[in-house]
């Protein structure tokens, strides 16, 4: 019996599902096991994390871009089914992309580590799936681990989704135990897609990937009608039309087909070279007799976090520009504009979805393009209304206007923290310090708590995750989503060297914290700036008002004690070396600042988002 | 190769032995235990005399204006061996009539009789590593002598007839106070030394002291304290009749070390012994560092060249671990770098046009002495003395 062909598959045998899981809870391993169980990939050609493509994904064990794989499966009842596993990106910065992946499915496997329980991001994605009325299949993974507590976490999951603990499946993706039961459960529980085969075609884009050889590969889920190889397609939000070069499914390698029908999941290739031409969340229809109404839910990606990226070596600027141009092809959310800093030279002000996004871009620039970069401390976008009623959007703290402001708005997020109950006090204290407003608190089980806060995004960007991890010994997990903006009493703190403001060090902070911030940076700089010919005052200022000051005293001794026989050539070589070292100094006004000082100061406020 | 006409010629002789290694010291020196059995301290001077012969035959025996035996602890090999080295020099080189002959000594490795023997053997200048009179400072420096030993040794030296006695001081040692420094300077003055070399402590990489500083056991020397102490030393010595003549050197009239000036005037000298540096006519080289390696190389050369009247420079290269031929620019850099450290300064004529215009600006700012500049000498003013390296860097551009 041959499996149904793409393009002519009865929707009744199709099951579209995704796996909602936290990093390290075994999603990729489970996906690997499913590939083997359905016979799609044999043991010999299996490699770990088959579906993760980027090096960074494999190394960090996270999925940045999603993928979809078509698994033909002969069920024990003898019927042939088509399972479409739609992989979802697993990080807080990509919530919108997750929501689009979920929208392409009827069901979700909720995969939770039996030794750790559910994490905040998983919970957030689970809520998203439940809001979409998706069928949830709760699964505990890693039941073979000695530390597994299946009963405890089954009860937790049952409590959250409102099912019987007995319905929670026990799986070990590593050994394969429970995987066939899971496949059976998917067929039984996940509804078959419903759609109107005779209606104009409508397909949801849930991912869009740039491939060097093929151009943009667009992943879609067909809702109504059919998309065939000979169709010309239209991107409904952009109104652009493209010839189709290829239609197909991933199973598990790309296989061209003659089309995709109702409920099917596959890819389209049009020859466009930029993922901005094929946007996640957009609806694809046919150019001829196309749909008039899109599937809805499309949103432009909006950068939330900004940072200036500068080449360490100024002459690398053209390389950095080319590299960003290339990354952009595969990253619809990345924005950048040329920017000049008095201190750092020529660079780019870049916009990111969040901290992880920033870090991934930075890492790719350094790794794939061999660039050495300095990045300024990440900041958020401020909306400022002047006394004259003029509205200004500030993406670079050094451009924050200083006077005559009537209102300042900053972005806020709704944050969810899951943590063992013993750390509740410590985490509430942290959130309070970070200007958080408690929205609610729930016990998920006896010793696990969900805290919900409204927090300024700027506070999360500033070191929040590291603090959270250290206060909970790594046991807390965090998720957040943008929920709008709030008015706040914010000020720009400038750092002055010898009376001159250093643009790269300017920051926008809450007035109550401006003093502490100024002291922190000024002291750090005092340690890092070598003594110079003249006394160098280091000051922090709000407008014209100096809030803290330190002094690097003038150097009093700069001479080698001994200069005899062998010292002479040593000393001459040292002179030559010092000449080179001077080149690594940046002149800020009349002050020589070592590059290391820039890096160290800018990274004090840079939070690590390795999760 | 011959020593260029009218260039003073000097000899430096290195004795690479010490009874124990001080924590701050990175000189090329070894204890008997470190050397094991391979090298005999008793006959080591014979190897040095062989190198003297090679030097003489390579350079066609120029007249010697100064001799300096350093270490290590030269006095560890005894007055007899040291005197024999001197006889070796006289055998292979003509000596200038006013030749200055110095040996270094540790205060606790000499006695009155030994000093008399050295003086009678021909030495006319002696330099003691006194460092400090503060017991705590001596302990931190891991010096083996007592606070009183240095004054005693200097007195013995005067009594033995040494015209010139130098005492070395180290200041800026962690734990040292300003008053420790004053005490040490007073002892130098009272002991009748006519020369004082005072060095701010340098924590040299690879030394026991560097390890202690890196691990936080010892605080690093404080530059401001060092600057203060330099000024204390300078004031006290000037008051006692000493004149400052180089970053770390003071002397009574007639007491300046002629050998030091050889280094600072880019004159010629041959360094004899393991790890010794030489400079002859714009070529610098350094001998193999380890006594055993040095000894082996020496044997080979001596065997090959035993019958030859004159030895080509290249033949000596087996003895060297590194050689550099200085470019005219490097020679210029060294000249500026060394001269600006001294009271004598640098003739204005040595500067190129760019340097000259920078020097004018320095003279205007008072960084170099405007009066002397007008009369043709570039000299860093006394108040900028401790910033001489900056002046040198900026003047050279």
Helix content of chain B: 40-55%
Largest sheet of chain B: 9 strands, mixed
Cα Rg of chain B: 21 Å
What spatial form of chain B do the alpha-carbon principal axes imply?
globular
> What separation lies between the terminal Cα atoms of chain A?
45 Å
Number of helices of chain A: 14
Overall shape of chain A: it is globular
Multimerization status: heterodimer
- Strands of chain B, count: 14
Mean pLDDT of chain A: 88
In helices, the fraction of residues of chain A equals 25-40%
Question: What attributes characterize this protein structure?
Answer:
heterodimer, A: 611 residues, alpha+beta, 8-stranded antiparallel β-sheet, 6-stranded mixed β-sheet, 14 helices, 34 strands, 34% strand, globular, disordered C terminus, B: 397 residues, alpha/beta, 9-stranded mixed β-sheet, 3-stranded antiparallel β-sheet, 15 helices, 41% helix, 20% strand
